[in-house]
């Protein structure tokens, strides 16, 4: 606690971790590439330098605030140094901005503009590296890397994966998967969090928009789409709307304009998952086997568990994720119609997540040569498609989802936020056993951004314990505690991305805690206004179980290993 003088103004500080945060509190946006409050301090980019009253220059992100400290953020010396640093970065960078997908949202470009960088005096010293297209989720272009290390720390500190590392020294330094392998050859789980934090175009989403256009222009195909919960509260950010603004009606219209025949809601798939997963849980509880049940809807988590905790194989739910479940239901539904009109139905998912691209192409989700889901495009790819098609998003009218799957419950919508799956399953289980009380209190426990959330409830006289965890490093710590019997639970919800799918690797960037909260609150407001609260109350789910799925629950489950 104390007072600093920043550019002649007194600014009080209390819990700020460093001078940079105090400067920001004073309303000055100091540039930085490598400082993120949720990651460890790296202090490498030096963009956040300030000058003190004795002429000393230092990085503000790695300096503690002191009472009485006097600093200047914009002296001629500071401005010159900062510009020099930026100029050196640019001299070693692929500057093909016109053809870079990050253009318009690139930190390097933004700072070049802010610092009035109208020329680079040095010849370009960039040594050309191969672009790594090996992953189904992300593309790594080292030629656009500025070595800020954000991706390395994100992958290690938040996701506990460590797929990326610094290699070599000095001018040869680069960021690469271990042993110079391609990213698909290491333990990357496709979560895309490295892409979400990368300030430049060095890590981007694997773009499949060409395939989208090919499908919608193919007259032999019937293109149907499903939209994941978290897309509706984030896409609008690409069109100047506040995070959390719900734009689902316009998204449906946009997809129809672009040639999609019918548009459905992955939340309907989520309702299906709730039904299948609760049934599975009750069975396991009765037999007292394979508990805790771990959720299976997050593919980055499933891959992480496969890599690191093979013993959990039978604990992870055998249910397909909502995306895959709904995909297989849609394929079954259109089968007859396809025969009649000689078309082939293809299912496109619009999803906040890069790992869903990999999930959809897994062998276990291909039945008789037919994929459940043919193409996964992320929120950011959809924004590009809308712009490419010249649609004025803000002016589109609001449409609604199509029948016969056009209704979903409020429980299905909150799947997109950490805690949502647990809450939806709880809602289902509690309804079935109405003796359970204190619903509200329980739900408050599983919502929000806390690292690990816990809730208990009583089912048939037995206490059921639920844990919710997000961020794979947190998940890994929790699994170890469970394995060491330091903690016991009956259900564990795991989402790889901090905050859940609302902060998925395919969402608009940059992301911060504030944005995550706003997107989550957009979903919870949809939950509050939903007329159908619980998955089993959804009449279309009942119809489905009595009709199309009457004798076929198999398609809701992963066929491998279970
Ligand atoms: Fe999610 Fe999902 S909630 S993983 O975040 O479970 O991606 O939004 O679509 O499948 O429903 C992502 C989001 C989904 C699935 C659903 C789940
Ligand atoms: Fe690491 Fe996820 Fe990026 Fe893979 S996609 S390198 S796991 S942060």
TrEMBL record:
Protein name: 2Fe-2S iron-sulfur cluster binding domain-containing protein
Family: Belongs to the complex I 75 kDa subunit family.
CDD domains reported in the protein's UniProt record: fer2 (cd00207)
Domain of life: Bacteria
Alphabetical keyword list: 2Fe-2S, 4Fe-4S, Iron, Iron-sulfur, Membrane, Metal-binding, NAD, Repeat, Translocase
GO molecular function, one term: ferredoxin hydrogenase activity
Residues of the 4Fe-4S His(Cys)3-ligated-type domain: 77-116
NCBIfam families tied to this protein: FeFe_hydrog_A (TIGR02512)
Domain 2Fe-2S ferredoxin-type: 1-77
Domain 4Fe-4S ferredoxin-type: 136-169, 179-208
Keyword check for Transit peptide: no
Record bears the keyword Metal-binding: yes
Coiled coil location: none
Swiss-Prot/TrEMBL cofactor(s): [4Fe-4S] cluster; [2Fe-2S] cluster
Predominant location category: membrane
Species name: Soehngenia longivitae
Gene Ontology CC annotation, any one: membrane
Pfam families recorded: Fe_hyd_lg_C, Fe_hyd_SSU, Fer2_4, Fer4_7, NADH-G_4Fe-4S_3
Cellular compartment(s): Membrane
GO BP field: ATP synthesis coupled electron transport
